[in-house]
Amino acid sequence: MTSSAAERDLRRAAVRVTKQRVAVLDAVRRHPHADADTIIADVRGELGSVSTQAVYDVLHALDEVGLIRRVEPAGSPARYDPRVGDNHHHLVCRRCGRMVDVDCATGAAPCMEPVAAQGFSVNEAEVIFWGYCPDCQSLGPTHAG
Amino acid sequence: MTSSAAERDLRRAAVRVTKQRVAVLDAVRRHPHADADTIIADVRGELGSVSTQAVYDVLHALDEVGLIRRVEPAGSPARYDPRVGDNHHHLVCRRCGRMVDVDCATGAAPCMEPVAAQGFSVNEAEVIFWGYCPDCQSLGPTHAG
DNA sequence: GCATAAAATGGAATTGTTCCAGTTAACGAG
DNA sequence: CTCGTTAACTGGAACAATTCCATTTTATGC
Description:
The structure is a homodimer of 145-residue chains. Chain A is α+β, with helices and mostly antiparallel strands. Chain A has helices at residues 5-12, 19-30, 36-47, 52-64, 134-137, and strands at 34-35, 69-71, 79-81, 89-93, 99-102, 121-132. Chain A folds into two domains: 5-71, Orthogonal Bundle (Arc Repressor Mutant, subunit A); 86-137, Dna Ligase, domain 1 (2-Layer Sandwich). Chain A contains five helices and six strands. A three-stranded antiparallel β-sheet of chain A has the order 1-3-2. The first copy, chain A, has a three-stranded mixed β-sheet with strand order 5-4-6. The interface between A and B is large, with 36 and 37 residues. Strand 6 (121-132) of chain A pairs antiparallel with strand 6 (121-132) of chain B, so a sheet runs across the interface.
C-alpha cells in the first residue's frame, strides 16, 4: 500500500502513523462535519474493528495538530471538520442538523473586532449561523420554532 | 410577599407562576451566565429543596418564552443568560470559563450577512469570542493552548 | 531486531441532561 | 372559596457523549 494523502499529512504533523489514524483522518475527509458516531462507524467499515476510545483519541490528536477542527453546535454532539487553516464559519439547520461551511461574508474576520473587550485578549471568533436548510424550509420547524 | 419583578415577568409571559419558577428566574438574574448546577444550588438555598428536574424544566420554559437565553459554549455545560431581546454575543475565557456579554462591535448584527448562503434561510447568528480574561492572561494557558 | 514511548483495547465511570409514572399545586369556572 | 383540569413538580431510573484507567500492542529510533 503506497503512502496515502492522509498518511503523508500525519507524518508531516509529526505524529505516529497508525492504520487507525489514517482511517480516521480519511473518514473525516469523506464525511465533513460528521459526528464521532459516524466516524466510528465509517472507520469500523474500513478496518473491521476499532475501539471507540481509539477514535476519540485520534480525533483529539488530529484536532490538536490542526489536521481537523472540532465544532460543537449547541444541542449537537461534536462535529469534525476537515477544512482547516482558514477562519471559516458554519451554517447549521435547526431541523436536521445539516452543517455547511460559510466564508465570513462581510470580509476578513469581521467578528474579531472586539479584541480587547472588557480586558479579555481575544484570539478566536466562532460564528454559527442558525436557520433552515433548503430541504427543511418547506417542511417548517418541527420544534424550537 | 408582594409581587416581585420575576413574578410579574412570568405572569406577563403567560405561564404559571410557581415558587420554583420565581426562584429560578431570580437565580439566573443573580448569576448571569451560570450553569444549571449553580442555579440548582442557588434555588435550593432559597427554597430549601427543589428537584433537579424542576429546575431543568423551568430553565427550558423560561428559554422558550424568551425570559432567559440558553448559551452553550463548546466544552461547557449550558449557561443561562438573563439578558434577552437584543442580539448580543459572548466572550469566553479559555482557562476559567468566565463569560461576559459583548455588543456586536462592528455595528448592528454584522454577522447576519450571509442570510441566503447555500440556500439556507438564516435567522440567527451566534458569535462566541474565545480568549483569556484579565485574571487568566497572566497565568497563561493551562491546556488547549 | 530491540527498546521505549506512544497508541490501542476493553471495560467501567462521569457528566449533563432527559424520560417516565405518580403526586401536587396553580388558577379558571361555578 | 371549593372543585376540576391541567400544568408543574418529585424521585428515580435511563441516556448519550465522552473520558478515565490499567493493560496490551505497535510504530519508530538505534
